[in-house]
Automatic annotation (TrEMBL):
Keywords: ATP-binding, Nucleotide-binding, Sulfate transport, Translocase, Transport. GO terms for molecular function: ABC-type quaternary ammonium compound transporting activity; ABC-type sulfate transporter activity; ATP binding; ATP hydrolysis activity. It comes from the Bacteria. The keyword Ion transport does not apply. This is Carnitine transport ATP-binding protein OpuCA.
Amino acid sequence: MHIEVSGLNKSFGDFHAVRDVSFSIEKGHLIGLLGPSGGGKTSILRMLAGLETPSSGDIVFHGKRVNDLPPQERGIGFVFQNYALFKHMTVYDNVAFGLKIKKFSKSQIRDRVMELVELTGLKGFEHRYPHQLSGGQRQRVAFARALAPEPQLLLLDEPFAAIDAKIRQELRTWLKEMIERVGITSIFVTHDQDEAIEVADEIMIINKGRLEQKGSPWDIYKSPQTQFVASFIGESTIVEDVSKLKGFEEAAGWPGAQALIRPEFIEVGNPSEFRLQSATEQGKIKHVHFRGSEWMVEVEVGNVTLITYRSLEKEMLHPGDEVRVLVHRAYMFNQSDSWMMENR
Ligand code: ATP
């Protein structure tokens, strides 16, 4: 289902929780709503679902405005964080639930439930009750139940939040494959950037009720449009006066602009590691942390501490070492623009 949202607002009393949010979603895409707690993600999802009425704005599914349609008429399936399975019903009956409401025949129900049980890897578990399943299995039942009535849109609110780390990882991959296979337009809420990056075709970054940016995970990582997005996705250090760094002198013409530097924008090493030493800064190693596959190095340059990674093969650095630091790039932000500055 193609989705078009324009000028969506939601206020709870004096509190403006969702502010002028507009976006469109292509049929079959998997979208991650990502952002800090309280930003408005769940409110957006609930308005799409019809569980909350927008204060203003339009929600259009497949060319039709659905603002006034009740949830059950919107063709939506839900998966929530806390499973919300019926405890007194077996897996079979949980998955069959939506089909019974829609008055499918007994044989239609049987066929569809078995199809989904198979699709979600739950064959053999049909007669178990939720308490006889693991967290991951329960979430797969929730997914099968949501898909059973063949919704056009699947909404998932923090679907993995209650599941422990290892299973969560498996479920993410599983979910992505499953959604691709079914080909259903899906939107999931998360506050976990790794999860959004790994699973979503596109990410929408929501902060303080606003949509800060929408794009593929790679786009958002590579070209953040706001300072919030740059600091929320990936690691970075804020540098107040980047014009003091070699190669960035022209930033002095942009007063008030802040720079963000990602670990991969920097190289740190002994003087012999740099061909063009004149382009490098003097630095002093502050900390070196072992991260399994590489070192994380904190280095002081002037009055800022920059973070970078260093390959295990290279000569070891120690706190206190005098080193050279090459800054390749910086993201620059002022009130209305962002741009990438390169050290040439
Ligand atoms: P979280 O990740 O914590 O769920 P979120 O990004 O999903 O956060 P929302 O749950 O949409 O954010 O909430 C956005 C803001 O709106 C919050 O400050 C919340 O307290 C407020 N809010 C949400 N629902 C209501 C309500 N029914 N009445 C009053 N305020 C509400």
